[in-house]
Specification:
This protein has 129 residues and is α+β, with helices and mostly antiparallel strands. It is built from three helices and five strands, in the order E-H-H-E-E-E-E-H. It has a five-stranded antiparallel sheet. A hairpin with a 2-residue loop joins strand 4 and strand 5.
């Protein structure tokens, strides 16, 4: 199952050369992950208040292939690679039409508000990659 999230590149996302500044891709894929979780019917505020669970990025690998430019309409594709008791490993791609611009692999960990590892709630652990 691939989640798709569209976004437009604004002037503020670009560098002096008119290309998307590299760090902004991390914001793009973060927004897509948040929308993916929301699309599953999981409210992150409720997850924190009722289960005491928050997510943090533990590891991220990104391969910048082709730069996006001002006013491009991008699509971020998010897919689950693996789920363990306390980790989610996701693959994410940023595309312009069908052209791959960035490929990332993100490891998220579940933890409590003090930063200690915590089990993922069952509704997340049961997701199938």
């Amino acid at each position: 199952m691939t989640h798709r999230f569209s976004l437009r590149v604004y002037y503020e996302d670009t560098d002096f050369g008119g290309l998307v500044y590299y760090a902004n891709y991390l914001k793009f894929i973060e927004r897509a992950r948040s929308e993916w979780v929301r699309s599953l019917g999981i409210d992150q505020k409720t997850l924190k208040s009722e289960h005491g669970v928050v997510f943090a990025v533990r590891h991220l690998e990104a391969d910048y292939i082709v730069p996006a430019q001002f006013d491009d309409l991008l699509e971020v594709r998010t897919q689950v690679e693996r789920i363990t008791a306390a980790r989610l490993i996701l693959s994410q791609e940023v595309c312009l039409c069908e052209e791959l611009l960035l490929r990332a692999r993100v490891t998220l960990v579940a933890m409590d508000v003090r930063g200690k590892p915590k089990r993922l709630p069952a509704e997340i652990r049961l997701l199938q990659p």
